Amino acid sequence: MKIKLLIALITIIIVGFFLSLFTSDPLIKKIQNEINSEISKVGNNWIKASFDELSISLSGTAPNQIDQLALVKKIEILAGHLEIINKTSVALTNDKNKLSLRLELIRDGSQVTVIGLVPSLKLKEKISNELNKLQNTTNINNFVEVFDFPSTLNFDSIFTKALWFVDKITLGKVEITEKETRVLALIPTNNSTLNLKRILTNRALDDQSINLEILSPNPIISPFALNYNLSNSGGNLESCSAENLGEEKKLLAALQSQPLLKTFPCSVGGGSPSPNWTQVVISGIKSLQLIGSGSLRVSDLDLSLTITSSQPGINVKREIDNLRAELPDEFTLNVVMPNLTGEDMRASEWQDSFIAVKNKNGLITLRGTLKNDLTKIIILAHAKATFGPSFVNAYLELNPDLPIDLASKIITGITALKTLYEGEISVGPSKISINGKISSATHRVDLISSIKEQIGFSENLEINIIYDATINPTQIQPTPEQCVNKINTILKEAQIKFEPASAEIIGSSRQTVKKIADIMKDCEQVVMEISGHTDSQGREQMNLGLSQLRAEAVKSSILSRRVLVRNLIPKGYGENQPIADNKSEVGREMNRRIEFKLLKPKTDPRSQLSNNKDVILKE
């Protein structure tokens, strides 16, 4: 008897051991997690799944046959090699009107899967026949079921439209219901796919019954630019940037108000330096078209307008003043008019001046006119040596008629900017002005004396350097905890929001990113995680990938504002860390969020950061 008990005990231990091996199988755990995630979604709580070593047992009462069929088929797809034991049932009802047509066509490369419910065998056969005609497909899974229920839908027309989208995309799905046809396409962002996005978008715009969503992480474009030339015969668009296809259409519409001889698609992506960027560029285009001929060059927040001729009766200076008045504070305008004479030469102060601006973040913008290429090389080399190559933006034109001695005065002015907290120098043939703020009264006196000594007392020199006691050059840096708390406080006030099912930051959230970037300038040595979170709608794996893309998009957006981001580590958590109930829209919105988390590396963070290869992009 004791021997039999011992054998039984050993058998139980062995069986338990092998069962533990099964339950620790990472593939099985993955299947369990994906199925449990699907069951946890809103509307799926009627079903229960029990797992053993070879099968999955499903039980529960579905509210209707459509929900039963759709969810069981999804679980069958997720189950892989495990056998499905379906013990589910449907709540009793004699009302066929509660049933309605619903189809899901899922495209995954060369494989197409169709799941759903149709009211007749004829429609099921039509679906099979049409799916077999699809190009570039090697495997078609047809899980369509037939139930007798009324439908007023023009199925032939709707299904033809749906197949058109399934044929065009390589990853995504099309959902057909009595109310709408919804298309979700996952398309990588690159030059080869831009045309496909336009084709899909235009097709959806032409048919209001199609609800199209394109999930695609956009690249960060830097600088955001437009180059446009206008002559008497028409315009040439050399390059342009746009946040999305809608913004591109606005730009092209403005350009096409004059004959457009040459154009090509804009580069579409994130990184716009201002929510006003498209409208400002359109204002610049309209001003050039009104004045006459020339060129418009836009790079981020800097506009360079070159006017080669004007139309009769146009007051060029007044039109340029109007454009300048329209510009938001963050934009600058440089105007060059090399060929205009007479009345229009009243604006010659623009064409003959060199201007250098230093903002409070240490960024330097050089614009205006220099004598020749050699002078340009010398000035740029001096500015980059003084402030660092990454902190200098230059938008310069050449005018060989300028005096040769301006270069030395410009160099003196740029050197003076280094001492100023923020300021501006303007150097022209007949006038030199230096304005700005400084943090030391003693340094102010010394700087003014040095400038006068190097430029000369006889020059028409204006100096307006103000001592500002509120500027503290030795300001105490915030602690790591303060950095993270400040950023998360901003996010509580205004979360960073994205386009639906996309990693593209919407325009209204750029101010939030800008505020975070300003804080980051004092926290560049604090190692932080950018945590991306989603709600529970959609597949778990898709949500995980989307949250990672969104965290990376926030990092890229901060980088585009000329902030070092080597200390930022983006990480997506998908739907796995909710802070509210996903059953309500309010809860789901709270769960779709970006958070910053303080990381405390085991090693010296400075050594960790030194190996990172992030670079500063132009703002």
Describe this structure in words.
It is a single chain. With 619 residues, this protein is α/β, with parallel strands linked by helices. It folds into four domains: 2-90, Histidine-containing Protein, Chain: A (2-Layer Sandwich); 96-215, hypothetical protein tt1634; 352-474, hypothetical protein tt1634, CATH 3.40.1520; 480-610, 60s Ribosomal Protein L30, Chain: A (2-Layer Sandwich). The chain is 38% helix and 26% strand. Strands 10, 11, 12, 13, 14, 15 and 16 form a seven-stranded mixed sheet that branches. The longest helix is centred in the first third of the chain and has 22 residues, at 2-23. Mean pLDDT is 79; it is low at 17-24, 342-350 and 603-619.
Low-confidence stretches: 17-24, 342-350, 603-619
Mean pLDDT: 79
Total beta-strand segments: 25
Number of domains: 4
For the sheet with most strands, the description reads: 7 strands, mixed
Class of the largest domain, according to the CATH hierarchy?
Alpha Beta
Shape: elongated
**Structure classification:** alpha/beta
Separate helix tally: 18
Q: Write the CATH homologous superfamily of the largest domain.
A: OmpA-like domain
Assembly type = single chain
